[in-house]
Design a protein that fits this description.
single chain; 173 residues; alpha+beta; OB fold (Dihydrolipoamide Acetyltransferase, E2P)
């Protein structure tokens, strides 16, 4: 087996895992990574990072692609192919991680005053539920608490009164 074939195999493995694992979908629709979380902010924002599998897959894909092209178009020593491939893979993994974190940053997701939303998970009297609200071109889901004493059922229209990171306080409309 030649090094070129090995590099191509690594690239195809990473690329296939990216497609099967949904990395391609998350890159095209990164707000979905943030919208799946419904726990209160103190329980999830500090720990919300790019999934480890995405970092590994992006590293494998870029490492394989870079080393394959370096092998095909240059006459560098194998050691330099590996070094440059590893550097490209690491850079791609870091860029992906930083981009996903920036997309999910709650300070960039502030809602307009009195925004209207739809409850997608019941909001109990003294607990957390989940709302979905339009923000720009995307719809995001946020953890929500209510000002009312009763449960707000899914499907109810609510008005956002306050926002603290990704947890919003709502009242029925």
């Amino acid at each position: 087996m030649t090094y070129g074939f090995l590099y191509l195999t690594i690239f195809l493995l990473g690329f296939t895992l990216a497609l099967v694992g949904g990395l391609a979908r998350r890159v095209l629709h990164p707000s979905e990574l943030c919208g799946k979380v419904i726990a209160p902010s103190h329980e999830h924002w500090a720990g919300l990072h790019t999934p480890t599998a995405d970092v590994v897959v992006s590293f494998l894909t870029l490492f394989g692609l870079t080393t394959f092209f370096i092998r095909g178009f240059t006459s560098l020593a194998t050691r330099w192919e590996l070094i440059l491939g590893a550097a490209a893979g690491a850079a791609g993994a870091v860029i992906l991680r930083l981009w996903f974190r920036a997309v999910c940053d709650p300070s960039r997701r502030s809602l307009p005053d009195s925004a209207e939303a739809v409850v997608v998970r019941d909001i109990p009297a003294r607990g957390y539920g989940q709302i979905e609200v339009a923000l720009g071109r995307s719809r995001i889901k946020l953890a929500a608490r209510s000002t009312s004493d009763g449960t707000i059922a899914a499907g109810t229209l609510v008005r956002v009164l306050d926002q603290r990171e990704s947890v919003v306080v709502v009242s029925p409309r």
